[in-house]
Amino acid sequence: MGPPTALTQEEEELLVRWICACANKGFPLNKRLLCETVKDLIESDNRPNPFKDGLPGFKWFNAFLKRHPELSQRHAESINTARACVSENSIRQWHEDIRKYLINENAVDILEDPTRIFNSDESGFATNPKTGLVLGPKGLKNFYEIKSGSEKECITALFTISADGQIYPQ
Q1: DSSP one-letter string for 151-169
Q2: DSSP code for 57
Q3: Which of 10, 129, 135, 161 has the highest local Cβ count within 10 Å?
């Protein structure tokens, strides 16, 4: 139904894969960048551009999302580059290094006593938390946008809890 799409099905599938790959790497695309990319694709191929001012608009964007239900548009959580580099393997290695250190110090019994195992977590509550809407695959749990530097102020809370469930005052 309706007029033909500005891009071929293959081109749209390539765009969807690109959008998902960017989002998975922490660099989700916003509507503006997607529309500019579509404009560049059409212009680079010397095809007639069906869009007003050459740039896809609101109707094209919404139709694109309807044609590709695997994509969604939402707000990303901003994290810095250092935090984005943490992986499951690096966390597992850190725990193994701690275990080796405690064995070396003849203090591995600490790991058997839940009153001696602590976790502290810092939470920042942004005073200006909004980022613009970005695109990515539906169902992506951790939807981050990596930003350099500190671009917003926040209020920070620190909590410390032992493995036996005791919450400690700060």
Answers
A1: -S-EEEEEEEEETTSPEEP
A2: -
A3: 135
Does residue 60 lie in a domain region? yes
For the cut 70, the answer to whether the pLDDT of residue 35 exceeds it is yes
Q: Write down the pTM of the prediction.
A: 0.56
**pLDDT band with cut points at 50, 70 and 90 for residue 77:** confident
Residue 33 lies in a domain: yes
- The answer to whether residue 17 is domain-embedded is yes
How many domains is the chain partitioned into structurally? 1
Range of the domain at 48: 9-76
pLDDT, residue 148, reads 57
Element (DSSP H or E) covering residue 145: strand 144-146
Integer Cα distance of 126 and 85 in angstroms: 22
Q: Which of 52, 7, 10, 9 is nearest to 34 (CA)?
A: 7
What are the DSSP calls for 129-141, one per residue? ----EEEEETT-S
